[in-house]
Design brief:
The protein is an alpha/beta fold. Helix content is about 40%, strand content about 20%.
Length: about 160
């Protein structure tokens, strides 16, 4: 996943299990050479950043507010957008693929935006969403490793010549 950007999205008020999964995701993404992009706060976002940083990876957080001091301390780069929840669109736009852990309204918006723009989406836990036709929905994964493998496969299929 060299030079790839993978967004890890999920609730700030994450469960211990969601944080554990996100930490594993961040580490796996970093070990495979990709940059972790997130919303820059705690919970799933902070745990993914912690995992990536522990493995020497780069993490970019797009914060909802104007104060970089609100950023999770494990971020490599914190960008204060001042956009509130609208920053979810920037998180998705900055990424080549999105992995969602757990579910919240913000997470659901990021999954929807990623699907709408044709980006690969893998969900670990979270909600079932009914409606989109086959091929226009997200993949499911049972673990961090399965999610990162699915991201790599999806990105390989969408690459020029892939």
């Amino acid at each position: 996943m060299t030079s790839r950007y993978v967004a890890v999205v999920g609730p700030a008020a994450a469960t211990a299990r969601e944080r554990e999964i996100a930490r594993g995701l961040g580490g796996l993404i970093a070990r495979r050479g990709a940059v972790v992009v997130c919303g820059g706060l705690g919970g799933v976002m902070g745990a993914a950043s912690e995992g990536a940083r522990a493995c020497g990876g780069t993490t970019v957080g797009l914060l909802p507010g104007r104060d970089r001091r609100a950023a999770d301390p494990s971020l490599t780069v914190a960008i204060a957008t001042g956009l509130g929840e609208l920053r979810n669109g920037l998180v998705v736009a900055a990424a080549d693929a999105v992995v969602a852990v757990g579910g919240s309204w913000g997470t659901l918006s990021e999954v929807a935006l990623a699907l709408r723009t044709g980006k690969p989406v893998v969900v670990v836990g979270g909600w079932d969403v009914q409606g989109p036709p086959a091929g226009e929905t997200f993949l499911r994964a049972a673990s961090a490793e399965e999610a990162v493998d699915a991201v790599e496969a999806a990105l390989a299929e969408s690459s020029p010549g892939g």
